[in-house]
């Protein structure tokens, strides 16, 4: 498939998922995960109309950011080490993996130096898999309350990663649980601003995530393809 055909296919599948769930297409932001493709491929995605780029390592993202800054919104979607915060804050507009106070403290320090505010998703390990990062669901409320002390961090919602399933429908309980957790947090806790966003759903299961309330889907191969697509 060419890039344009992948873009059309993803858009059609998003529209169908929105129709099935009674949602407006405008509620969902597509993030093109470009970590496995070149800067040229990332540029082509942006020219194709996807203005949000997701990366999970600064060395891989550096050239793309330098090339596309001002043309794309950058999302840091991987686990973030505290000693790498200096490379991320001030360049990325969103972090999807805030899951511990030591990371919040490092972000706060760097953001204060640069006089910026960073929008963050709190990562929650809904599936309980040992290999996944994130807070336990019952830790989320206390953690987000503690974030109120960090004026350079703006928590906007929750993020999770579902296990890969051969049948995407099997991921539905994970996505539904994250949405219910967000709604419970908003109902039972007084926030400065309610949590509104849900970062969930990848190439294999994004339609299920949309049906369950995703506001941000992170799409790699199904959207950007692989590096055998030169000239597309």
Topology diagram in text:
Layout: H1 3-21, E1 29-33, H2 39-47, E2 52-55, H3 58-68, E3 73-76, H4 85-88, E4 94-98, H5 101-114, E5 118-123, H6 140-146, E6 153-159, H7 172-188, E7 197-199, H8 206-211, E8 216-219, H9 221-224
Parallel strand pairs: 1-2, 1-8, 2-3, 3-4, 4-5, 5-6, 6-7
Helix pairs in contact: 2-3
Structure description:
Helix 7 links the parallel strand 6 and strand 7 (197-199). The chain has one domain: Alpha-Beta Barrel (TIM Barrel), CATH 3.20.20.10. It contains nine helices and eight strands. The longest helix is centred in the first third of the chain and has 19 residues, at 3-21. The chain has 232 residues and is α/β, with parallel strands linked by helices.
Brief synopsis:
With 232 residues, the protein is an alpha/beta fold.
CATH architecture: Alpha-Beta Barrel
N/C terminus separation: 9 Å
- The backbone outline, from C-alpha atoms, is globular
Approximate strand percentage: 15-25%
Q: CATH topology, anyone?
A: TIM Barrel
Class by SSE composition: alpha/beta
The residue ranges in which pLDDT falls below 50 over 5 or more consecutive positions are 228-232
Quick one: how many beta strands? Answer: 8
**Largest sheet: spatial strand order:** 7-6-5-4-3-2-1-8
Number of helices: 9
What's the story with the biggest beta sheet?
8 strands, parallel
Name of the CATH superfamily: Alanine racemase
Relative helix content: 25-40%
Q: Tally the structural domains.
A: 1
Compressed to H and E, one letter per element, the order equals HEHEHEHEHEHEHEHEH
Mean pLDDT: 94
Computed CA radius of gyration, to the nearest angstrom: 17 Å
The CATH class assignment is Alpha Beta
């Amino acid at each position: 498939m060419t890039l344009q055909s992948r873009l059309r296919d993803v858009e059609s599948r998003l529209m169908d998922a929105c129709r099935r769930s009674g949602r407006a297409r405008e509620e969902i932001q597509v993030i093109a995960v470009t970590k496995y493709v070149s800067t040229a491929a990332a540029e082509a995605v942006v020219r194709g109309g996807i203005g949000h780029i997701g990366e999970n390592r600064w060395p891989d993202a550096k050239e793309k950011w330098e090339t596309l800054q001002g043309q794309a919104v950058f999302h840091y979607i991987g686990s973030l080490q505290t000693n790498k915060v200096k490379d991320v804050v001030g360049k990325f507009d969103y972090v999807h993996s805030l899951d511990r106070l030591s990371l919040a403290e490092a972000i706060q320090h760097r953001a204060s130096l640069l006089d910026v505010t960073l929008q963050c998703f709190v990562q929650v390990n809904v599936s309980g898999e040992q290999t996944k990062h994130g807070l336990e669901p019952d830790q989320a409320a206390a953690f987000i309350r503690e974030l109120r002390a960090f004026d350079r961090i703006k928590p906007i919602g929750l993020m999770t990663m579902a296990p890969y399933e051969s049948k995407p429908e099997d991921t539905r309980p994970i996505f539904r649980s994250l949405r219910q957790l967000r709604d419970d947090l908003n109902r039972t806790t007084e926030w400065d601003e309610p949590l509104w966003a849900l970062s969930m759903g990848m190439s294999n299961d994004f339609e299920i995530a949309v049906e369950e309330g995703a506001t941000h889907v992170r799409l790699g191969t199904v959207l950007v393809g692989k590096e055998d697509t030169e000239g597309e």
